[in-house]
C-alpha cells in the first residue's frame, strides 16, 4: 500500500468550543486528495489570530455575521496557522511539489491568472481566496477525531503533527532555512512587513507610526525602515518592547501609559504637530482604530489596519476620516502568496531581518497550554512549538 493512501494517527491541539480549554488529542489525518499535500510539521508558532480562533473568530463570528446559520458550528478546531513542515505525500495532480520539500503554509493563494492577480492591485486571489469556513476548498475536512469532523484555521492546522493543505496554499522554501524563522515568516512578521512595503508603499523620508510592537508591528517597523522612512515611532504600553523596537528600527518609542495624552497627540508632538505620513494599527484593539488614523496628517495621512481582534464591527471617529485621511484594510499585508512571500522567505534565509529577536520562548506540543501563559509575560514576543 502506498503511504499516500494511508490514514495517519497523530497528536494535535484541539479547541472544542468558545471558552473551552485547548487539549492535545489523538486525531486521524486522511491522505491528500488530488491537488493536496500532507505535511509533517517540524515546528509552529503562535499568532494572535490563533487565540482569537478559540473565541470563535473569524469562523463562527464571521459566519454568524453573514447569517449563514447552517454553518455556525465550527468546532472542534485544530489550531495553528503559522509553521513550517516537510511534505510527507502528495496528490496525483500536484506537479510543483514533491515528497521531502520543506514548505510554509499560506492562507491565500496566487493563481496568477484571475482578474485580481493579473491587475497586481491586490493580493486577494479570486481562484484561491481566504478560506473562512475552516474547511478545504471542496468544503470537506481531512482531519477527524473519534469519527467527528475537525475544522481548522483558514487553510491549515499547524499545531498538529501532520496536516493536509491544498497545494496552492503552501510555499516551498529553502530546506536549510531556520525553522523558527520560517514559521514567523508564514504569517505575523510578513503581514507587518508587507503592509509597509505593498499596502502603504511607504516613501523615503516619511514619518511612520506603528501601534503595537508584537511580531506584526515589528515587521511593519523594519518594512518601513527598508522603504526609507526617516522617522519610525513605535507605540506600545509594554516598556519591554522598546528594545525590541530599536532592534528592528524604531527611532522613537511612546508608552501611552506614561502620559495623560492620547497616543495620537503624542505622535503629533514628535512630528512637529503634523502627525505621521503613515500609521499601522497592529493590535486589534478597537479603540485604536480612530487613534491610528488621528495620528496621521490631515488630508494626506494613511492608516493601514492589520491587527485582528474579535469584534466584527469597529467604532470610527467621524472627524478622524472626514479630514481627508485614508483608512485601508489589509489581509496578509498585501503580500502575494508566491511572488512576494518568496522574496521575504529568501531575505529571512539570508538573515536580512533580525528574526532571532522575535524568538523568546519555546514549548513542546504536549505543553501547548503553557504557551498561552507565556504569552502573558511582558518579555514574550513569539512562542515556538517544537514538534516531536
UniProtKB/TrEMBL annotation:
Q: Which GO terms describe its biological process?
A: formaldehyde catabolic process
Q: What is this protein called?
A: Alcohol dehydrogenase-like 2 isoform B
Q: Can you supply one Gene Ontology CC term for this chain's record?
A: cytosol
Q: Which GO terms describe its molecular function?
A: S-(hydroxymethyl)glutathione dehydrogenase [NAD(P)+] activity; zinc ion binding
Q: Which UniProt keywords apply?
A: Metal-binding, NAD, Oxidoreductase, Zinc
Q: What is the lineage of its organism?
A: Eukaryota, Viridiplantae, Streptophyta, Embryophyta, Tracheophyta
Domain Alcohol dehydrogenase-like N-terminal, chain residue ranges per copy: 34-174
Q: Which family does it belong to?
A: Belongs to the zinc-containing alcohol dehydrogenase family. Class-IV subfamily.
Question: What PROSITE patterns does UniProt report for this protein, alphabetically?
Answer: ADH_ZINC
> Alcohol dehydrogenase-like C-terminal domain location, by residue?
215-335
Q: Name the Pfam families on file.
A: ADH_N, ADH_zinc_N
Q: Tell me its cofactors.
A: Zn(2+)
Which InterPro entries is this protein grouped with?
Answer: ADH-like_C, ADH-like_N, ADH_Zn_CS, GroES-like_sf, NAD(P)-bd_dom_sf
Subunit note? Homodimer.
- Oxidoreductase in keyword set: yes
Amino acid at each position: 500500500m502506498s503511504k499516500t493512501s494511508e490514514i495517519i494517527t497523530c497528536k494535535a491541539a484541539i479547541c472544542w468550543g468558545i471558552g473551552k480549554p485547548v487539549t492535545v488529542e489523538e486525531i486521524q489525518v486522511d491522505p491528500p486528495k488530488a491537488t493536496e499535500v500532507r505535511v509533517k510539521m517540524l515546528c509552529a508558532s503562535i499568532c494572535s489570530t490563533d487565540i482569537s480562533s478559540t473565541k470563535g473568530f473569524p469562523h463562527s463570528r464571521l459566519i454568524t455575521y453573514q447569517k449563514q446559520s447552517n454553518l455556525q458550528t465550527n468546532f472542534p478546531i485544530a489550531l495553528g496557522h503559522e509553521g513550517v513542515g516537510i511534505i510527507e505525500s502528495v496528490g496525483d495532480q500536484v506537479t510543483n511539489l514533491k515528497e521531502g520539500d520543506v514548505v510554509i503554509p499560506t492562507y491565500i493563494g496566487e493563481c496568477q491568472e484571475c482578474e485580481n492577480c493579473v491587475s497586481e492591485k491586490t493580493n486577494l486571489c479570486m481562484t484561491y481566496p481566504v478560506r473562512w469556513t475552516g474547511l478545504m476548498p471542496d468544503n470537506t475536512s481531512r482531519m477527524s477525531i473519534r469519527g467527528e469532523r475537525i475544522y481548522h484555521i483558514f487553510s491549515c492546522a499547524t499545531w498538529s503533527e501532520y496536516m493536509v493543505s491544498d497545494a496552492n496554499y503552501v510555499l516551498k522554501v529553502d530546506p536549510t532555512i531556520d525553522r523558527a524563522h520560517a514559521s514567523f515568516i508564514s504569517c505575523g512578521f510578513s503581514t507587518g512587513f508587507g503592509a509597509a512595503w505593498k499596502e502603504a508603499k511607504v516613501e523615503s523620508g516619511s514619518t511612520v507610526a506603528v501601534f503595537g510592537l508584537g511580531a506584526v508591528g515589528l515587521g511593519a517597523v523594519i518594512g518601513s525602515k527598508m522603504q526609507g522612512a526617516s522617522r519610525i515611532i513605535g507605540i506600545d504600553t509594554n516598556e519591554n518592547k522598546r528594545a525590541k523596537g530599536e532592534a528592528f528600527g524604531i527611532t522613537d518609542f511612546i508608552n501611552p501609559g506614561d502620559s495623560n495624552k492620547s497616543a495620537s497627540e503624542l505622535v503629533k508632538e514628535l512630528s512637529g504637530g503634523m502627525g505621521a505620513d503613515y500609521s499601522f494599527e497592529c493590535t486589534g484593539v478597537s479603540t485604536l482604530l480612530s487613534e491610528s488614523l488621528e495620528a496621521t496628517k490631515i488630508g494626506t495621512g494613511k492608516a493601514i489596519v492589520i491587527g485582528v481582534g474579535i469584534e466584527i464591527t469597529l467604532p470610527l471617529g467621524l472627524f478622524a476620516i472626514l479630514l481627508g485621511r485614508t483608512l485601508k484594510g489589509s489581509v496578509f499585508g498585501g503580500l502575494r502568496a508566491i511572488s512576494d512571500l518568496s522574496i521575504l522567505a529568501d531575505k529571512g534565509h539570508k538573515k536580512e531581518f533580525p528574526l532571532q529577536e522575535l524568538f523568546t520562548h519555546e514549548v513542546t506540543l504536549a505543553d501547548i497550554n503553557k504557551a498561552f501563559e507565556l504569552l502573558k509575560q511582558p518579555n514574550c514576543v513569539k512562542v515556538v512549538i517544537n514538534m516531536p
